[in-house]
Amino acid sequence: MLIGLNPLLSPDLLRALRAMGHGDDLAIVDGNFPGDGFARRCIRADGHSATDMLRAVLSVMPVDDFVDDAATVMKTVGSDDVPEIVHSFQAIINELADHPTDLTRLERFKFYERAKGAYAIVQTGEARLYGNIIITKGVVRPPADTT
Q1: Which active-site residues does the annotation give?
Q2: Is the pLDDT of residue 1 over 90?
Q3: Which of 19, 34, 44, 92 has a CA that sits 20 to 30 A from residue 132's CA?
Q4: How far apart are CA 6 and CA 146, in angstroms?
Q5: Are the C-beta atoms of 63 and 70 separated by less than 8 Å?
Q6: Pairing relationship of beta strands 25-29 and 120-124 according to DSSP bridges
Q7: Could you give phi then psi for residue 84, rounded to 5 degrees?
Q8: Do residues 92 and 54 touch, judged by C-beta distance below 8 A?
């Protein structure tokens, strides 16, 4: 345990977040997602929701403000409906991201391809369908000069 860190940030996840560079993607996925089959690094977070994990990640990771698709979710198959969890993802980004951004929606197989290229996939126990989001890491800027 550490002071001030969300306890969902496991040692493996903290290591991955720290090792990621600007422009690297992190996929936070639901329990149905084929994470182990797709991931270069699959970090298990069974028993935790994707929304709680997004909150934890955004507490320590900046969001890329140089790209238009820094937060990407999967489109529903065969429908234009937007699942409630996607609205929740957007609300969390609006509240916690250092650079809030609108979600981009990708067709299922395009989302899979992007997730395959992610630095890491965090496989949650999320039971809500379409509980998947890819976040692009931004730049950690130096503090403003106060002298």
Answers
A1: 22
A2: no
A3: 19
A4: 29
A5: yes
A6: parallel
A7: -55, -35
A8: yes
Q: Where are the alpha helices (DSSP H) in 31-121?
A: 35-38, 50-58, 84-96, 108-116
Do 98 and 8 contact (CB within 8 A), yes or no? no
Residue range 121-144: average pLDDT?
Answer: 95
Report CA dihedral (72, 40, 9, 51) to the nearest 10 degrees: 30
Do 115 and 129 meet the contact criterion of CB atoms below 8 Å apart? no
Q: Are 121 and 39 in contact (CB under 8 A)?
A: yes
Residue labelled with tokens 């489109």: 75
Contact 26, 61 (CB under 8 A): yes
Question: Residue ranges of the alpha helices (H) in 59-142?
Answer: 84-96, 108-116
Cα 85 from chain centre: 13
Q: Which tokens is 25 given?
A: 């993607």
For residue range 69-124, list pLDDT tens digits in order: 999 999 999 999 999 999 999 999 999 999 999 999 999 999 999 999 999 999 99
